[in-house]
Design goal:
1331 residues, alpha/beta, 15-stranded mixed β-sheet, 14-stranded parallel β-sheet, 46 helices, 33% helix, 17% strand
């Protein structure tokens, strides 16, 4: 057994291992212990020679240097000849890192060459820098000594090379790179390369990092057209450290050149380190690169403009850094004051808000504000490194405490994830630990100790739970007391009146809602001045004079805050007016000292009496009133001074007798409808079986007073309802009835409005009907008349919403008729056979799966004949259908069109809570034109809108708030539709609002719509500067729709022009594009803003050119990529002139079918060498998805051969569509189509006149394609085995098509289609078929 020494340090292996980690001073001490230790620690002593710190090495003598020279691995700061002598005496030949400050003397350079030659096989890092004392002269030093000689067996191991201040020959760079195959980092500054043509641009595959100034990189050959930049040598370059030299405000080279060179030679270059002024940095980051992942700039240059430039790379950005102010900055123990050049903290918050892929943010000189951090929602969930300052953490102790809390929270998060309490949820992948759970750190042992969390929880607890929580402690009492006092229901809580008046006075300011205020005791308890913030009030007034004054006092104190009032009288007598209470409307008038107006939007009155003059005053005092319900209320006395017409009242609820005979004592009482000219929705009822008001009177008043009234909701009986619908209302678009009264007679009455009816729905059978999980059994009044309901879908082509949840349809009845309502969006009904929740869910899943597939989405259901599959196939016929059977709330609420009346009803006060409960599902809003709609959409739970459509009115307040909503959703908004609903005199008013929204903020803020890609502007007048600001603020812009837009040009058009490189499609007329401002006829066209434009959809209505063709062609020079032209409503001669004289080399041409003529086709053939798509506009959007063969009017029936010239002469044609033209197979077979790359074909063929014939031809083609794939697969396997050659793999179309003896039209068409191997989409008259 070997003996181990008593002291571990007696082991040579252990000493050798320790020697690698000791300092030089400790190594010198260890060398002096003994001979063995000298042997082991000598390498550590001589490993690094730094001539700045190691003085007097020459005094050791050449013998000592030669004895230990073989241990030298690193040489630093080699500056003078004496330093060279020491290295030469040591005969060191295994140096790994060498730093030389080059002297111009010949002897110095000769000695340096000898040292490099001696160590060129071992060197990994070489830094050759011009000596600071010799900066005025360029050094000519040969780098050949770095290259191992040919006789040497070793190759260069150099991984990092830095040269500065040298003068190199033209081919030296390529030669040097060839000789260093392992080079990874290359640095070159102040180096002159001879301006000769470089014959050999060697591309080094391993260099990942380049350190060189911009001037050095792009002046290698003085002309990039003759000699490429330095980037040409590094195809796999990933990181570039650069700067301007000397620091100037000019980049020195065009950003376009930089961008072109980077894309051409260094596609992987995604990291930029720039030390330059902010103006240069902005040009470099914004215009010189695409898709940067890492950006590092000087902390002095980190300004707001640089941050906005960095945000142009938000989709790819992962690292944002600034250089350290000095070495060791992150190791300091004290908090030092620094200057923050960023300014406002919100600018940095945009980085963390918009850049989802961020992993590191290092801005040590910036100080963030925690208030702004909490308001922002950081999307960078994968953040790993954060180095910033925070306002308030200004001492070492505070910083250490915050970091310790974070460490404790991180530890607790890991413990929670691993805890057994989360076991099952965690392993299912559904467990997620929120930051709120990890807040249980030393400062807060429980999450409920956080006041913010308690305040949020208090909003959702019940009254009983809130009372219990308020008794926990003082802090909890403060958070939960507001919830206890928020709503006072005096009917449910009879103990309120027994409370001490001091208690009510203390907490009265917290009360927001009072319900069921009935008697004098309750009114007396509320006589407290602190109760002045009520928003909703419901009360029953009695006749006692003293009590009435107290009622009015409550209303007077809260009239400026109340939004809903429900007033009823205890004694209701419709006939005896003298017994009724007269309501004093003056109590609703806010005090003049408050400078406030009434916010009342919902008013309900029952059993009171007013004069006509008081009623007009009531309407005048409530300017924002939207909903008014009057029941058993008498209006008395004559009012001869005229009517007050309320302009905002859109919803009125009252029985017919109340509307037309408000004063029962007079037979000729005037109608209430005269007060509401903008009324759109009427809720009424009639208790008797006979209509008390003649139908012609109703029709006359509606037509005269309420021309916009098109929505009727009523619970009247069937007989009364039929008379009211048929003869009482002229043009109904929406009808809502009670499901019990929905009879065949009522359906027939609704059918009299089939030209205008859009929405038919019934009131839900019970409260919460659409929330039930099980299938309820309810009575169907139309069980035996299902065919009558089908008439609604068959004859009412404008139907968009049908909600009849109590009716059960028969799928057989549905299959026998053809629904004409192709735009139906909402369908709530039952289907016979879907009688369990499982069957309903299965049908819904099939429907959703079909929506996710291609246009031929029903093909996967053809083999299924179950009731679920049949229902799904029927639903898939309607592309706009969003909701069915009351399920899938997310689908139902995703898109809301506020122009439709039933959806507008959801925005009324009565449905306010239900609306807010589901509004987090909303993603698209269309046709918003109402202040109340806008108020609902500004709620915090609506935070992910992707599309907003606004129709502007004359209301300037509505303008301002609309753009606040747009700015709120700027991070998620992808589509924006802004249009005008009034005439041209208001165009300039809307311009000011748009400019304030999209232009830079006066305080320096800039709105960035990071995802906005498809805006639509219609009816605006925009200044050129505002238009440029709009483009600058939408970096993701792809498509721009501009209709009826007036663009005014400034004094210097070129200075205000911003060129957007992302816009690919433009929709604008010729006059819109080229005649922007009559005052500036020579200004650049709209095309100059979009240099990368690819598609232009335009029109020219008149028979003559509104813009000279010469100017159009001249302006097209600014859009070299414009190869797709779509013309609409443009006459044929204009189209011909455009194709012949203006456009060149078009790839896609789309024109209206009426514009096509033989001359236009010949003009199209002028682009035959580049044309890829020739197609006219289709008659309607669903034309290619029709089940039946449409009738067409082919005005080319006698010029079939001219149309055949297109596929015959256009060899690059990929899409050929002439759906209204009938081709003759004889002419087709005589022609030889040269478009072998054809992918889409949409034509008609004479002889395929029925759906069955077309389906047979399509099936033959599909069978042939399937056979071709099988044969190709077999032949490919034979080719791999060497049985056949490459030429034998191809398949002859004749062998896979129908038999040659089959001369039917179907077989001939299928045989022709099989000639095109890439053909994947075919339309021959019925539904489009995708292969």
């Amino acid at each position: 057994m070997p003996k181990f020494p008593k002291n571990p340090l007696d082991l040579p292996e252990l000493r050798a291992h320790i020697s690698r980690f000791v300092t030089p001073n400790d190594a010198i001490a260890c060398v002096q212990v003994c001979k063995d230790w000298t042997h082991d620690f000598s390498a550590a002593v001589w490993h690094t020679i730094n001539f700045k710190t190691h003085k007097g090495l020459e005094s050791l003598g050449w013998k000592v240097l030669r004895k230990y020279g073989h241990h030298i691995r690193v040489v630093k700061n080699l500056e003078v000849s004496s330093h060279l002598d020491i290295v030469l005496w040591s005969k060191a030949s295994k140096i790994l890192s060498l730093q030389i400050f080059m002297d111009p003397s010949l002897r110095f350079q000769t000695d340096c060459s000898e040292i490099l030659s001696r160590n060129n096989a071992s060197l990994t890092v070489v830094r050759i820098i011009q000596h600071p004392d010799c900066l005025t002269t360029q050094l000519r030093f040969s780098l050949d000594s770095l290259i191992p000689t040919a006789c040497s067996k070793d190759s260069s191991k150099l991984t990092e090379l830095q040269i500065a201040g040298l003068h190199l020959a033209s081919d030296t760079v390529s030669t040097l790179l060839k000789a260093c195959p392992f080079l990874e980092s290359f640095s070159m500054r102040d180096t002159v390369i001879s301006p000769a043509t470089i014959k050999d641009t060697f591309q080094h595959q391993r260099v990942k990092c380049l350190v060189a100034p911009i001037k050095q990189v792009f002046t290698v050959g003085y002309d990039t057209t003759v000699c490429p930049s330095l980037l040409a040598h590094f195809p796999n370059l990933e990181t570039w450290h650069t700067w301007t030299q000397p620091p100037t405000s000019s980049l020195g080279v065009s950003p376009h050149i930089i961008k072109t060179e980077v894309i051409k030679f260094c596609p992987n270059l995604k990291a930029l380190y720039a030390q330059a002024p902010s103006t240069v940095t902005v040009q470099l980051v914004c215009s010189g690169f695409e898709g940067l992942k890492e950006v590092c700039v000087s902390h002095v240059a980190m300004t707001s403009s640089v941050i906005m430039a960095i945000l142009t790379h938000q989709e790819t950005l992962e690292f944002v850094r600034t250089y350290e102010p000095y070495d060791g900055f992150y190791e300091q123990d004290n908090v030092k004051k620094v200057e923050d050049y960023v300014g406002y903290s919100w600018r940095v918050q945009m980085l963390l808000l918009l850049c989802r892929r961020l992993r590191a943010v290092e801005l040590p000189m910036h100080e963030m504000d925690m208030d702004e951090i909490e308001r922002s929602m950081w999307t960078c969930e994968n953040l790993q490194i954060l180095r910033v300052r925070v306002q308030g953490l200004d001492t070492k102790e505070k910083i250490d405490r915050a970091i310790q809390m974070w460490l404790d929270g991180s530890r607790l998060r890991r413990e929670l994830v691993n805890a057994s309490a989360l076991g099952r949820a965690y392993f299912d992948g559904s467990a997620s630990i929120s930051p709120m759970q990890t807040s249980m750190v030393s400062g807060a042992k429980s999450p409920l100790e956080l006041p913010e969390l308690r305040a949020r929880i208090s909003r959702f607890v019940s009254l009983k739970d809130a009372i219990v929580c308020a008794q926990v402690c003082k802090d909890w009492n403060q958070d939960f007391t507001s919830q206890i006092w928020r709503t006072i229901d005096l009917q449910a809580n009879d103990k309120f009146i027994k409370l001490d008046p001091m208690t009510i006075s203390k907490h009265g300011h917290r009360i927001r809602v009072i319900k069921n205020l009935k008697n004098a005791d309750q009114v007396a308890a509320l006589q407290c001045s602190s109760i002045c913030n009520l928003k909703r009030l419901s009360m029953f007034m009695n006749g006692a004079q003293s009590t009435l004054l107290q009622y009015y006092d409550i209303l007077r104190r809260n009239n400026s805050n109340l939004t809903r009032i429900d007033i009823s009288a205890e004694q209701v007598d419709q006939v005896n007016v003298e017994t009724k209470l007269y309501f004093v409307v003056d109590v609703l008038a806010p005090s003049a000292s408050t400078l406030a107006t009434s916010r009342l939007s919902d008013l309900r009155i029952r059993g009171l009496a007013m004069t006509w003059e008081s009623f007009s005053s009531l309407l005048r005092l409530c300017p924002v009133l939207k909903y008014l319900k009057i029941q058993q209320t008498t209006l008395s006395n004559c009012y001869s001074t005229g009517f007050y017409k309320h302009q905002n009242m859109t919803y009125h609820s009252a029985p017919l007798q109340q509307i037309f005979h408000a004063d029962p004592r007079k037979s000729n009482s005037q109608s209430l409808l005269r007060y509401f000219p903008k009324l759109t929705r009427l809720e009424t009822w009639e208790t008797s079986e006979v209509l008390d008001i003649p139908s012609h009177v109703i029709r006359y008043e509606v037509a005269l007073c309420c021309p916009f009234l098109d929505s009727l909701e009523t619970t009247s009986q069937s007989s009364t309802l039929v008379e009211m619908v048929v003869r009482g209302f002229p043009h109904l678009a929406s009808i809502c009835v009670d499901h019990i009264n929905l009879s065949p007679e009522v359906i027939t009455a609704i059918l009299t409005h089939q030209q205008t009816i859009e929405r038919v729905y019934t009131f839900p059978p019970s409260v919460g009907f659409y929330k039930q999980d099980n299938v309820l059994v309810i009575e169907d009044p139309l069980r035996s008349f299902g065919w009558i309901v089908q008439l609604l879908f068959q004859t009412c082509s404008r139907l968009t919403h049908v909600l009849i949840p109590a009716h059960e349809m028969d799928i057989s009845d549905i299959a026998r008729v053809t629904w004409s309502c192709a735009d139906i969006e909402t369908l709530h009904t039952r289907i016979q056979g879907l009688d369990t929740a499982e069957k309903i869910n299965r049908a819904l899943r099939m429907w959703v799966a079909g929506r996710a597939q291609s246009a031929d989405s029903t093909s996967s259901l053809e083999e299924h004949f179950t009731i679920e599959a049949r229902v799904s196939r029927h639903l898939l016929k309607f592309k706009k259908l969003r909701a069915w059977a009351g399920n899938f709330l997310e689908v139902i609420w995703r898109e809301i069109d506020l122009y439709t009346i039933p959806l507008r009803r959801m925005f009324d006060i009565s449905n306010h809570k239900a609306l807010l409960r589901h509004m987090h599902f909303v993603r698209e809003i269309k046709n918003m034109r109402d202040q109340y709609q806008l108020f609902i959409l500004m709620k915090p739970n609506i935070n992910q809108l992707q599309s907003i459509g606004v129709v502007f009115t004359v209301d300037t307040f509505f303008h301002k708030k609309s753009f606040e909503l747009i700015r709120k959703h700027r991070n998620s908004l992808a589509q924006l539709d802004l249009s005008m609903s009034f005439d041209g005199r208001w165009l300039r008013l809307a311009l000011d609002t748009i400019t304030l929204s999209l232009a830079p903020h006066p305080e320096g803020k800039t709105e960035v719509f990071s995802r906005l890609c498809r805006p639509k502007l219609q009816g605006f007048c925009i200044a050129q500067k505002a238009f440029s600001t709009l483009l600058h603020g939408c970096p993701a812009l792809e498509k721009l729709d501009m209709r009826d837009i007036a663009l005014s040009i400034g004094q210097d058009p070129s200075s205000d022009m911003y060129k957007h490189h992302g816009v690919k499609q433009l929709i604008a007329s010729f006059i819109q594009v080229f005649n922007l401002d009559p005052k500036a006829p020579d200004a650049p066209s709209l095309l100059a803003y979009f240099p990368n434009l690819e598609t232009w959809s335009t029109w020219n209505v008149s028979l003559t050119f509104e813009v000279p063709p010469e100017r159009i062609k001249r302006e097209l020079g600014s859009c070299p990529n414009l190869k797709c032209i779509l013309t609409n409503e443009t006459p044929g001669p204009i189209v011909k002139t455009l194709l012949v004289q203006v456009f060149e080399g078009l790839k896609t041409i789309e024109i209206t079918y009426k514009s096509i003529s033989d001359e236009v086709i010949m003009a199209i053939l002028g682009h035959r060498n580049t044309l890829e798509g020739a197609l006219p506009h289709i008659p309607h959007n669903n034309f290619y998805f029709a089940e039946e063969v449409p009738l067409v009017d082919d005005h080319f029936w006698n010029m079939n051969w001219i149309v055949q010239l297109l596929p015959r002469m256009c060899s690059k044609l990929k899409e050929f569509a002439y759906p209204l033209h009938l081709m003759y197979m004889d002419i087709v077979e005589m022609s030889t189509w040269s478009c072998k790359a054809l992918e889409k074909l949409r034509v008609r063929v004479r002889g395929l006149d029925t759906k069955e014939e077309i389906d047979l031809a399509i099936q033959m083609w599909v069978d042939g394609c399937t056979l071709r794939r099988q044969i190709l697969r077999e032949r490919e396997q034979e080719r791999e085995l060497g049985v056949i050659g490459e030429a034998d793999v191809q398949v002859d179309p004749v062998t896979i098509g129908p038999a040659l003896s089959n001369k039917s039209v179907e077989a001939r068409v299928a045989g022709h289609l099989l000639k095109f191997e890439k053909l994947r989409s075919v339309w021959l008259g019925t539904k489009l078929r995708q292969l």
